[in-house]
Design brief:
- It is a single chain.
- The chain is of the alpha+beta class.
- It has three helices and nine strands; from the N terminus they run αβαββββαββββ.
- It has one domain: 2,3-Dihydroxybiphenyl 1,2-Dioxygenase, domain 1, CATH 3.10.180.
- A hairpin with a 3-residue loop joins strand 2 and strand 3.
- The protein starts with a helix and ends in a 7-residue tail after the last strand.
Length: about 140
């Protein structure tokens, strides 16, 4: 593992010997899109894709066995955010909140429930990318 990846791993998990309760696993990403219906139509044509959630504001697709692609109504912005899943979201929030710095900030407030039933919180990385941490319960897994 490169030094940069090791630093990121230590930032997210706290150390190499982290308690299982605060580990996080990469699960996918969410794209900001102009038209949910058009994007669902496009991405659902990939073989092995299943539509897990489909609303006018948000859709979640599973592609293959374990990868998820979220599609979020963009409101004129373009971009994406990374998604990580944790079995103990509250402990992870506490750990990352205490480790927050001027370069990487956890969003204000603890994990909250999304309309599709998933609890999550967000933070921004040093370059301003949005990173979401979720419990995975509302993702249709």
């Amino acid at each position: 593992m490169s030094r940069g990846c090791n630093k990121i791993s230590k930032h997210i998990t706290g150390s190499r010997r982290t308690e299982r309760s605060t580990t996080a696993s990469f699960t996918g990403l969410t794209l900001l899109v102009n038209d949910i219906e058009r994007s669902v139509d496009y991405y659902s044509k990939i073989p092995g894709t299943a539509i897990l959630v489909n609303t006018p504001e948000f859709a979640m697709l599973r592609i293959g066995k374990n990868s998820r692609l979220g599609l979020l109504k963009s409101r004129g912005r373009k971009g994406f955010h990374l998604e990580f899943e944790s079995k103990n979201l509250d402990a992870l929030y506490t750990k990352l909140s205490s480790a927050s710095s001027a370069h990487a900030k956890v969003s204000p407030g603890p994990p909250s429930e999304r309309p599709w039933g998933e609890r999550s919180f967000t933070m921004t990385d040093p370059d301003g990318y949005l990173v979401e941490f979720e419990d995975g319960k509302g993702s249709g897994k």
